[in-house]
């Protein structure tokens, strides 16, 4: 007789565990939605956005880096966590330039989808309107720093998947920004290719391949039903 697989409790449901699972991985495999922005299965986690914060046995942890433990009680969708996520998303919106209807990534943007799922209808905070200039110097990739949420996915993809290290994060606090490794600091002088994973992994509309905008019609974009999905 084989022993039953270990499980933990996720919002009251039993979730099976596999060795090495994080809370986010196990919950997603079982069909539960864990809000996240900076996690992608293709690269190592950075735990930088904190949108995936859950309560594990009452303690707040980032689900994307916290190992799931047998018997653990995880709470993800509580009113208090929902409120925290809403404020965090509102902060991300006011720290940059996120005018969704005019963005090519609209309907395919994780930030926009997370805000819709969180029920965000207003910014709540004063918009900071940072002075960040578009970098259109690359022949095939558009860089709009005002949309960058510093998730570091392009940094990790360039390093771990493309073996190039085109990107890094510089500065601190509100001065933090994406750095480009090139003689001029502009994307056009960097080693980035439009075929690189880093050119496609951005969860928002900060890095966009040129000449493919609005390719999917409204209604068929990945997050068109974000506000109604789990
Ligand atoms: Fe876990 Fe961003 S997805 S901290």
Automatic annotation (TrEMBL):
**GO cellular component annotations of the record:** membrane
Could you tell me which residue ranges the 4Fe-4S His(Cys)3-ligated-type domain spans?
Answer: 80-119
Domain 2Fe-2S ferredoxin-type intervals = 4-80
Q: Which Pfam families match?
A: Fer2_4, Fer4_Nqo3, NADH-G_4Fe-4S_3
Q: Which UniProt keywords apply?
A: 4Fe-4S, Iron, Iron-sulfur, Metal-binding
For this chain, one GO molecular function annotation is: metal ion binding
GO BP terms, alphabetized: ATP synthesis coupled electron transport
Question: Which cofactors, if any, are listed as required?
Answer: [4Fe-4S] cluster
User: Which SMART domains does the annotation name?
Assistant: NADH-G_4Fe-4S_3
Record-linked Gene3D superfamilies = 3.10.20.740
What is stated as this protein's family in its record?
A: Belongs to the complex I 75 kDa subunit family.
State the name under which the record lists this protein: NADP oxidoreductase
Q: Which organism is it from?
A: Tepidimonas fonticaldi
């Amino acid at each position: 007789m084989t022993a039953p697989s270990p499980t933990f409790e996720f919002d009251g449901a039993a979730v099976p565990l596999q060795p090495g699972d994080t809370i986010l991985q196990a919950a997603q495999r079982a069909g539960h939605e864990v809000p996240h922005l900076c996690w992608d299965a293709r690269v190592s986690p950075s735990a930088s956005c904190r949108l995936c914060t859950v309560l594990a046995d009452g303690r707040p942890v980032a689900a994307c880096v916290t190992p799931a433990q047998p018997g653990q009680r995880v709470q993800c969708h509580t009113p208090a966590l929902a409120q925290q996520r809403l404020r965090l998303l509102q902060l991300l919106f006011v720290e940059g330039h996120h005018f969704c209807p005019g963005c090519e990534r609209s309907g395919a943007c994780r930030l926009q989808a997370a805000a819709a799922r969180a029920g965000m209808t207003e910014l709540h905070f004063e918009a900071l309107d940072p002075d960040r200039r578009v970098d259109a110097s690359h022949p095939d990739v558009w860089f709009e720093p005002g949309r960058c949420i510093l998730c570091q996915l392009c940094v990790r993809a360039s390093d771990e998947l493309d073996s190039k290290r085109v990107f890094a994060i510089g500065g601190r606090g509100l001065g933090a920004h994406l750095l480009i490794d090139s003689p001029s600091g502009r994307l056009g002088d960097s080693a980035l290719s439009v075929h690189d994973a880093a050119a496609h992994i951005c969860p928002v509309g900060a890095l966009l391949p040129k000449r493919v905008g609005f390719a999917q019609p409204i209604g068929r974009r990945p997050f068109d039903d974000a506000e109604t999905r789990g």
